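General statements about sequence and structure are easier to judge against a single worked case. No coordinates are needed to read the tokens, only the vocabulary itself. The sequence in question and its structure tokens are set out directly beneath this paragraph.
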Amino acid sequence: MSPLSISRRTLLAGAAAAAPLVLSSRLFGAETPNERLRVAFIGTGNQGMGLLKRVLDHDLADVLAVCDVNKGSFGYKEESHFYGRGPAKELVEKANAKRTKGSAAKCDAYADAREVLDRKDIDAVVIVVPDHWHAPLTIAAAKAGKAIYCEKPLTLTQAEGRDMIRAVRDAKVILQTGSHERSNPISAFVCEKVKAGAIGDLKRVVTKVGYNNKVGPGPGWKAEPVPKEFDYATWLGPAPEAPYHHDRCLYRFRFHYDYSGGQITNFGAHSNDMAHWGMGEDLGGPTEIRCLDAKFLPEGSLFNTATETTFLCKYASGVELLCESGPEQVQTRFEGADGWMQTGYKGTTASDPELLEGLPEKNENGLDPHAAHLANFVACAKSGEEPRAPVEIGHASATLCHLANVVIRRFPTAGSENLRWDPQAEKFLDHPEANAMLDRERRDPWA
């Protein structure tokens, strides 16, 4: 049994019960933790720019630096989106000039994240890069004494989570996983009500993940020249060598197993995290998991993650979790002995209107869930208190998604066997082939 798999259940409880974490004084540079937090953004693509705009719009912190391997280009989630370190630097400096009434405050732009982490005047980093870079950058940031906001899913592989927990806790820094539904008052209302027994004993949870929202080239696709302003070698980093194609990078990385886990880890990191929340399984996991259906593109296609999936999990409590692809990008439905409640991007409903009495406004305090989650991170980076989605919760939610991908890739047909999982030891029981898929090799020097 891994010592870390035991400690991850006690670390969070201990931190919550004790005084705030004792953080290194270098977190704040000067010994005045009430000063504004000084932040760097590592990753300024689709999601990174969205979070950066929220920090600037709500004046949550001082952004001293931005970093991305792309100087600037079109073609992120939409072809018209022009992102990268150049546009991000310009955005920050315009906001700074507006806030300081024309006195421009400089924002530095970097292509190499190591230069950002070496800066003593940066207190915290917001890591918004493809999933295969989450663990290396988080561990490096923790060793550099930075507070960390790392986008979801927290990890590329299940095994990486243990390394990230160890790095964060050894360094005594805080980490907020980008599971912003934890800062959505509507999600909190539903999950806490279910956990409190409002619908009786919980029987089943049904979660949704969206269909693939991009189409890549099929078999026979051809490599393309690497754009001049894009450091593709660094973008690949620990991932296997592969010829460049624009559909491999930027927003579309999520449809390649080398860099992500498809929509299961993308949208499922939200819907299944809410499932765990309402189930009271924040740090837990299933005891059995089974693939009911999975569809893939033809062999040789550039995109290789599952296009549609359905999988079933069973928990020691007797609750079942069914996750399936659907038109709803994120939805979580709780079914109990006395009723049901569901919430997601399409709204919130219940079997009895009385269950929704007191449902809060979504934009409480003028902050959407993303901005509220960032504000919680900033406050906790200053105080040392645990954020709403600490590293252990991010690991547990990502683990569920990774287990699903193991089963779907190993047993993609209906009627396949149940795989038994030990959430304490964090391994499959009696299945070495499945356990071997919980981690993967990384290229030097990131091995």
User: Anything to note?
Assistant: The radius of gyration is 21 Å. The first strand starts at residue 38 and ends at 42. DSSP finds 13 helices and 15 strands in the chain. The longest helix spans residues 391-410.
